[in-house]
Amino acid sequence: MILEILKLLVDTVGALFVGACLLRLWMQWLRIGMRNPLGEMVIALTDWIVRPLRRVVPGTGGVDWSSLIAAYLLAFFCVVLLAFSTSALIGVLRLPGADVFLGLALIWLVKWLLYVAFLVILIGAVLSWANPFSPVLPVFNALAAPLLRPIRRLFGPVGRFDFSPLVAALIIEILLRVLQAVSYNWLGTY
């Protein structure tokens, strides 16, 4: 039970910080201004790791590489922390090789990217129904637009309803399950 609680804590805190780094990358890639409540939160959560990396890794080609590297480093730290904690709790000090840690960190990074995409779509859809005049709704719409645009081309609105967020959420859930299966089969872990 302690191991499950530890995994939940590492996964939650890791998702918060890695997700914020990925959201920062995404917002800068789409050239969404950071002077809004979401941007300010992202900056507050990520500046401590992204700013020092910017001195070493500049952004090029419209990609904020320091945010991506920060997200990967945080995912790697979470994987290592969980592996060492699990080994200590079980009492076995046999750890996998560095390649497993690097692979797991990449899998967790993709998993958290999918979760961020899901949350962006979900929050945007809920805000459009519950509070269409919210000051952050344009930010969520701009973030979700590249994800929903191809789906809207395939499936137009049904009457006055847009089911593209639902289809996108379903696709993301399928991708998460495939990622979990690949992770389990490849590394023998989740």
What does this structure look like?
The chain has one domain. The two termini are 17 Å apart. The chain is built from 6 helices and no strands. It is globular, with a radius of gyration of 18 Å. Helix 1 crosses helix 2, helix 1 packs across helix 4 and helix 5 crosses helix 6. With 190 residues, the protein is mainly α. The longest helix is centred in the middle third of the chain and has 33 residues.
List keywords for this structure.
mainly alpha; 190 residues
Order of helices and strands: HHHHHH
Query: Largest beta sheet, briefly?
Result: none
- Whole-number tally of structural domains: 1
So how many helices? 6
Q: Provide the gyration radius in Å.
A: 18 Å
- Count all strands and give the number: 0
Structural shape: globular
- Low-confidence runs (pLDDT<50, min 5 residues)? none
Distance between the termini: 17 Å
- Percent helix, as a range, is over 70%
Determine the strand fraction and express it as a percent band: under 5%
The assigned structural class equals mainly alpha
Residue-averaged pLDDT: 91
